[in-house]
Design a protein that fits this description.
single chain; mainly alpha; Multidrug-efflux Transporter Regulator, Chain: A, Domain 2
């Protein structure tokens, strides 16, 4: 919502808090810190509607910027993890190929040993 289209009414800190879903103390802290333009009139904090709208728009942009930064960091982390997993997969593929060769060789040796034992039994039986 553009600040130009908003009627410039005056809101209490409690009304601002209700609208933003925060407690009144948070609104007072924002005003005291200069994050949200407002002033204390007698014992009540007052905020112009246009200032609240500008605050919300700025806060939404900041939140979106932080979220984009978080997403970029997550993407970089996931990219690094993917690279590491691909490298690990490659090593495991090499190890699997080695183990298959060893298994095949062991089967061949066992077959040869069994054949030799069979021939020895036939020779000793004859």
């Amino acid at each position: 919502m553009s600040t130009a289209l908003v009627r410039d009414e005056i809101l209490t800190a409690q009304a601002v808090a209700d609208e933003l879903g925060v407690v009144e103390k948070t609104v007072r802290r924002w005003i005291a810190a200069g994050k949200l333009p407002g002033e204390k009139v007698d014992r009540v904090f007052a905020v112009r509607r246009t200032d609240l709208v500008a605050f919300q728009e700025n806060n939404n942009r900041s939140r979106a910027s932080r979220k984009n930064g978080e997403l970029e960091r997550t993407a970089k982390t996931l990219d690094a993890e993917l690279i590491a997993l691909r490298a690990k997969n490659e090593l495991l593929e090499v190890e699997l190929a080695r183990l298959r060769r060893e298994y095949r060789d062991a089967i061949e040796r066992a077959a040869i040993a069994e054949h030799n034992q069979k021939q020895e039994r036939e020779l000793t039986a004859a």
